[in-house]
């Protein structure tokens, strides 16, 4: 049971890292797009 919980926490942490990276990339992409539109 403890092994099951630890593996789930590892997968959850990995998923959070991936989601965070995707959000950062999208934010940077929209920022660059907005700057280009303003100019």
TrEMBL record:
Q: Which residues cross the membrane?
A: 12-32
Give the keywords, sorted: Membrane, Transmembrane, Transmembrane helix
Asked if the Swiss-Prot or TrEMBL record annotates the protein with the keyword Membrane, the reply is yes
**Keyword Transmembrane helix recorded:** yes
Q: What is this protein called?
A: LPXTG cell wall anchor domain-containing protein
Q: Taxonomic classification, please?
A: Bacteria, Bacillati, Bacillota, Bacilli, Lactobacillales
């Amino acid at each position: 049971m403890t092994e099951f919980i630890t593996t789930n926490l590892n997968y959850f942490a990995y998923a959070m890292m991936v989601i965070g990276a995707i959000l950062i990339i999208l934010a940077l992409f929209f920022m660059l797009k907005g700057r280009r539109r303003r100019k």
